Structures are given as structure tokens and as C-alpha cells.
Amino acid sequence: MSTDDEYPDFAAFLAARLNDDEAMANACHGAPWSVDMRGMIHVKAKPGDPQRWQELGLVAEFENLEYADHVVRWDPARVLAAVKAKREILRRYDLRRRDELDGKPWASAASIAAFENVILLLTTVYADHPDYKQEWAGSFKPAS
Question: For position 115, what pLDDT does the model report?
Fold first, then answer.
């Protein structure tokens, strides 16, 4: 991402939250999980997966199968995939901003506004974070 002083704080905020999410998922070894019919969540290691995944085993146990299914849906592997996709949005936004600064004709204000709207929407997931600014929630930019 860009390091210039003009970089919007909402984009930097999102990048920082993605770093947090990535660190948390990696702390759980980035492993995919599965749930059995008893609500027990296990690391879903296959032959060829990292040895550390194969050694993990039981992750958690839930009395409510729906809760277990929900937790498995957000396993570390899925979180890492989501982080990767959102970082790609930030990367493309940064490229588009650089193109605009360089006067490239395809970098229109409307395309940059569209990227900014997407990034602003992505920040709302972290609205409970102390660094989140409530004005971001209502600052979507019209694409002209």
C-alpha cells in the first residue's frame, strides 16, 4: 500500500485490522476445521498438510451444533483467504490512486470513489474497534 501522507485513514485502518485478523488466524496455525455431529470441532488435516496441523486435533466443543457450525465456518483457513482477498482490493485501490496521480486517463474519480466505497463498507465490520471512526459509516462517496 501507499505510504504517502495523503493515504486515507480508513484504508490504513482496514489494512491494520487485516494484519490483526491474519495474526490471529496464524496463531491458530491457519488450519481448516470441521465439526462432527456431537458439536466437537477438529482440525481437518489431510495427508500432505503441514505436520503441525496433523498434530493438533480437538479445537473446541459446543453443546449447540449451530454454534459449532458457525465457528467452523470462520476457521483460520477461511479468515486467511478473506484477508488475502481484501488486501487485493486495497492493492488495486492503491494502484488506481497512483494512476490518478500520474494522470492516467483510466483512473477516473468515479473508479476511485467506487474503491473507497467498498473499503468504507469493509471497515464497518470493525465498527467496535476503538480506532474506528463513526463518520466512516456515513461517508460513502457518490460515483459521478
Answer: 94
